[in-house]
C-alpha cells in the first residue's frame, strides 16, 4: 500500500493545468494541489538556487524573487502582487530573502500554521539555499525569549512507570490504524503516514515501553524534543524501523504520527500550537482524511540525568486531543510585536 508519488513536479503540473493563481485557496492536504513543506522546499531550492539579485533595490529584489517563485511552482505571474498576508495565500507561505542570519518579521506575530520560505543569499547576492519552516518551528529558533509566550504544560510523573492516557486514537485517526501494520524495512520514520500502516496507540504504547529503564547518552537531548538523540533512535527501533531518521519537522516519527519528547524537568515546551488543536497538519490526506494536530500521538519520556547519561524512568503516551487531561497547561498568548529572529549560523547548511 504505497503513499503519494515522491516526485514534487507533479504539483507544478497540476497547478499549471488547473490555471490557478497564487490567490486561489487550496485545502491543506489536497493530494493534487497542496504542496507539503518538504516538497515545497525541494522545488524552491532547485528552482531558485543560482538566481542573482545583485545590485537590485530591496523592493525590486523582492519582486524578482516572488516572480521566480510563481514560475517554479507553476503559477502565472500576477500583474501586481497584492498586499495580503501571507503573500502566497493559496499555498499559505511568505518569502523572506536573507543575506544575514537576522530574520525580521514586521508588524505581525508568527502564525503557527503558516510556512515561511527563507531564501539564503551569498555575499554577492546569489541564492544559495532555500528552507521552508512552519511558524511553530521558526519560533523555536528564537533563543532570546522575546518572540512568544509559548504554550507550555507541566509534567509530573505518577506512580506508574508506564502510563497510557487513552487507549483509543481520535475518531478521525481510528479508521486509518491497523494492529497488523508492520514497519519492517520498507518505511522510514519521516515518511508520510499511510492508511493501514499506522499502529494503534495501544500497540505503540507496548512497543515504546521497552525504552523505559534504558540509559542513553545525554548529548543532543533537550526538554522540548528527543530530536537528534539516542532516545529518539531507540524509540524508532522499538517501533520496528530498521534505521533512525529525523528531518526536524513535526511530528518526529511522522510515519506513525508520533511526537517524541524527553523531560528531565517538569516544563513541557509545546511551541505555538496547542496539542488539542483541530487545525490541519501540513501533510497529504491519508486514506481520504485530513490529519490534524489533535490526532498526533505524544510520547513523553521522563528521566533523570547523571553525568553524560540519562536514565529513562517513565513513559506517558497520549493523543493531542487528550493531552490536557493529563498535563496541566500554563503559559500565555503570542506577543504582537516586531520580531527579530537570530537564525543559527548553520541554518542554511542543514
SS-based class: alpha/beta
N-C termini distance: 31 Å
Radius of gyration: 21 Å
- Determine the fraction of residues in helical runs and give it as a percent range: 10-25%
- Could you list the spans in which at least 5 consecutive residues all have pLDDT below 50? 223-228, 333-338
How would you sum up the major sheet? Answer: 5 strands, mixed
> Got a strand count?
13
Silhouette: globular
Count every helix, treating DSSP H or I runs of 4 or more residues as helices.
Answer: 7
What is the topological layout?
Layout: H1 9-18, H2 37-48, H3 58-73, E1 93-98, E2 102-105, E3 115-121, E4 127-134, H4 135-139, E5 151-154, E6 162-164, H5 201-208, E7 215-217, H6 230-238, E8 258-263, E9 267-271, E10 297-306, E11 309-319, H7 323-326, E12 328-330, E13 339-342
Helix pairs in contact: 2-3
Structure description:
With 350 residues, the chain is α/β, with parallel strands linked by helices. The protein folds into two domains: 9-146 and 335-349, no CATH class; 151-330, no CATH class. Helix content is 18%, strand content 21%. The protein has seven helices and 13 strands. It has helices at 9-18, 37-48, 58-73, 135-139, 201-208, 230-238, 323-326, and strands at 93-98, 102-105, 115-121, 127-134, 151-154, 162-164, 215-217, 258-263, 267-271, 297-306, 309-319, 328-330, 339-342. The strands form four sheets. Strands 6, 7, 8, 10 and 11 form a five-stranded mixed sheet that branches. A three-stranded mixed sheet has the order 1-3-4. A three-stranded antiparallel sheet has the order 9-5-12. The longest helix is centred in the N-terminal third of the chain and has 16 residues, at 58-73. The radius of gyration is 21 Å and the shape is globular. The two termini are 31 Å apart. Mean pLDDT is 87; it is low at 223-228 and 333-338.
